[in-house]
Amino acid sequence: MRKKLPTIREVAEAAGVSISTVSNVLYGKRGFYAPETAQRVWTAVEQLGYRPNHIARSLARRHTFTIGVVAEQLLGNVSHNLYFGVVLDGILQGATDRDYQVKIVRVPASAYEKAFGHIEDGSVEGAILLALPASNPIIERMEQSNIPSVVAGSIPPSSKLPCVDVEDIGATYQAVRWLISLGHRRIGIITGNLNYWSARRREQGYLMALREAGIEPHPAWRYEGNFSLAAGEAGALQLLRAEPPPTAIVCGNDRMAMGVLHALQRQGVKVPEQISVLGFDDEETATLTSPPLTTLRQPMFEIGLKAAELLLQQIELGKRLQHTLLLPAELVVRETVAPPPPDQ
User: Fold this and answer.
1) Number of neighbours of residue 105 by Cβ within 10 angstroms
2) 190 DSSP β-pair partners
3) In terms of domains, do 220 and 162 share one?
């Protein structure tokens, strides 16, 4: 005859507390019980073997085998934001390889405290902060917390947390140096949203390359976008009005580069004969543009995978690591870049 499994009522009776107190302890709802009460509950859980198999082991060891992924407005964007989707795939791979589950924490605007509560409530053992904007205070809160955490993408320059990202500055610097070697001197940029550190670093690499070559960046050759197709279109139209216009446009991501290609085509500007276009990311659709997009391929899946591995290492060691891992980007040359027109 199969042995009857213990119930939460039996745990409560063994610990001398109410059922609701047992529930609060098991789910990490702090502030509802004293430390000695929690100890009695965990002792009863272990002695009775409450909850079988994986769940029983996780509760007995006070593990949830769950990590959190924190991203601002992630659920509203993941269906059409390739970066979030591919990085998240890497995180899922790294977590499931070690039998961990993933909890996605969406951070709505002006609801940071509520979002942080989903990390601190005991439901996750650590958190990956995925490409949060500079204005998001959760990174600072996590620096002050003892909860294991890793920043993946758009890392703050002074972050005290372990970080995994692409080497934005060096990649953009090398790409712009390549454009200069082809003969381009009038090189414009459409940045991403500068509330994201990645956008700031890519512009920094662009400026470093120009100034090293003795080229003073023209204010009319710069447009701040927001990583969208529409921003690329608007930026291209603004840069075309410059006197003189640029012979090459560097874009903060592929989506904006595709917007640039659309706008130039409608204006009758030939790519790359009249203007060269460079993207960043290497989305799958970069090969489908007309002409196919030259871009910088960043290792999005690897960023997620390495972030998950670094977080789980901290969880298992029981201590925070001071580690920054910057992965290289690869220049993928297709058909949107050529030397500038001979008369330029």
Assistant:
1) 23
2) 223, 251
3) no
> What is the C-alpha separation between 157 and 154, in angstroms, rounded?
9
Same-domain status, 243 and 161? no
**200 lies in some domain:** yes
Residue 324: CB atoms within 10 A of its CB come to: 13
**What amino acid is encoded at 256 in this protein?**
M
Residue 267 sits in the same domain as residue 175: yes
Query: For 167-184, what is each residue's pLDDT tens digit?
Result: 999 999 999 999 999 999
DSSP for 154-179, written as a single string:
S--TT--S-EEEE-HHHHHHHHHHHH
Q: Which two tokens stand for residue 307?
A: 């972030």
Per-residue pLDDT tens over the stretch 136-172: 888 888 888 888 999 999 888 888 899 999 999 999 9
Nearest one of 113, 108, 114 to 133, comparing CA atoms: 108
pLDDT tens per residue, range 286-326: 999 999 999 999 999 999 999 999 999 998 888 888 889 99
Evaluate whether residue 49 is within a structural domain. no
Any idea which residue has 């414009």 for tokens? 188
How far is it, in rounded angstroms, from Cα 250 to Cα 54? 50
Q: Locate all alpha helices (DSSP H) within the chain, ordered by sequence.
A: 8-15, 19-26, 35-48, 53-60, 74-77, 82-96, 112-120, 138-144, 168-181, 197-212, 229-240, 254-266, 300-317
pLDDT digits over 35-87, tens only? 888 889 888 888 887 753 344 445 444 577 899 999 876 444 555 678 888 99
Residue 135 belongs to what domain range? 66-166+300-329
